[in-house]
Fold this protein.
Amino acid sequence: MAIKFHHLSFTYAPKSPFQFEALQDINLEIKDKSFTAVIGHTGSGKSTLVQHINGLLLPSDGIVEVDGGLLLPTKTKKYAKRLKKILKNKKVTAAEKERSEYLLSVMAQYKAYKIKNLRKKVGVVFQFPEYQLFEENVIKDVSFGPQNFGVPKDEAILLAKEALTLVGLGQEFYERSPFELSGGEKRRVAIAGILALKPEILVLDEPTAGLDPLSAYKMMQTFSEIHKRGTTIILVTHDMGLVLRYATDVVVMKNGTIIEETTPQQLFSNIKDDYSLEVPVLYEVMVELKKRGCPLDFTKITSINKLAKALKELKENSK
Amino acid sequence: MKNISLGRYIPTNSFIHKSDPRIKFFGLIVFMVLIFLKFMNPAMDFIMYGIYALVIFLIMKIAKLKVFAIFKQLKSLWFMMLFLLVINIITFQQSGGTIWFKIGTLAIRDIAIYQTLYIFLRLVLMIALTSVLTASTKPLDLTYAIEWYMTPLKVIRFPVHEIAMTISIALRFIPTLLDETGRIMRAQESRGVDFKGGKLREKLRAIVALIVPLFVSALQRSDELANAMIARGYDPSAKRTRYRLLRFTWRDAIILLGSLMVLTGVILLIVFKIDFVVVVQNLLTMWGL
């Protein structure tokens, strides 16, 4: 399922003393079945952007297109009227008219989504998702989501069990209270709650924040497995190691705009100072090795294991 | 939740912002008392509410606050007004007063409409006043003011500082809890919870899905905060000094005098039973109009 943002803008608390323009004229396409990382400073608009994908936030202006369905700022007729009014206004610039015409053409092609239908397709794992747990036991909490989408209770429990297995929690956890669990276990239960919905797109907003390195690694491996099964994954993160290791595409954001769309390898090979991003240690090691004459293929090496394997191959070939 | 600005501090460099929080608090109490005073007749009451609204509007302008933005936050009160009206209509079925009109067997009496308007206007005026205070005073300064007013209670060993500290922490955590509520709501919405629609059973379930995590997180936060305070050697009974001392200035004198003058004026209106409608009628007769 491809995701397209057409001239998306978003303002928090409009017409209030706390008005804040979080996104400005975003145009972006996230490819189907990709693992896209969204990176940038705190406050650059990453979380705001991804919350538009399942309609948790609706655009202030512009359109979000998910799998041929649209998310609009208001009702279709009202928004079309607003755009047509811009076209008729003589004081408006040619660029603005062109933009309105383009948005009307997008609206002519597809229909607007019913939010609940979209939310079934797009799962969102928030930062510290364990704060959303509330049921008396784990299995009830994980099956809560599917039941909200009309899945019968028995079927929802089966989905919950499947999701719990996927995140590495066995049946000994089913009847336990989520509040008795450790931090890492709570996080896995919360993520299972989203996975039980079987989303076609999974949005991960800093899912490993606050986890120990081993738990974070295991969690990312789970997401990698889900990606391999054909789910489109969008990862918001500050961890460049994760970007290098898992992402197929990268979107760099700054002050509510997109400043670069690229691949991890291209990003790290030509990182700009004003991005203030830390190049992963693994990548720095590879650059140093290349400088010293090792002919490494940067596009294929995304982990220490793969680097070790490549070095071993080089050594064997040189013999 | 980010759209809620009611009760939040809005920094501007106004006369009101620079004034002493103790005097602003005093002004608030004076106006609150005025709002609850009754006059000669309903017409006089509503004229006075109009005057109070004008005064509050002027204060908002002096404080450089966006009047519309604050009143926009009050839109949910319309539902409450409707609810109050229904209750009053039912309550005053057998009472005196004039019947204005009838809906089926229900008699709509003037007293029911007046009562609803009284409560609604008082509420709007009180919220607007409190908004001016909170928008123009930092939460910590407000706590200083409360603590200062409670100082005499120290004589009877009332824990003034502890109460003030509790209020200050509660105020400081309002935006945090609002953000947290928004975060939990979004997380639950992505699991299919519908906070806006649904049947009563679904609504109750949605509330549980919001309240339980909110309480868990609030309790966890309070625990962490208490531990952090203990770790930094906080002793509630210790004698404290202040980094920023509050001083009475000419601005405060103006606010104090203004509040006292308004209070005196209104008391005189009540004592001498002055009715503006009669006054205007007499003046018109005097001028032969």
Remarks:
- The mean pLDDT of chain A is 90.
- The CA atoms of residues 147 and 196 of chain A lie 10 Å apart.
- The two ends of chain A are 47 Å apart (CA to CA).
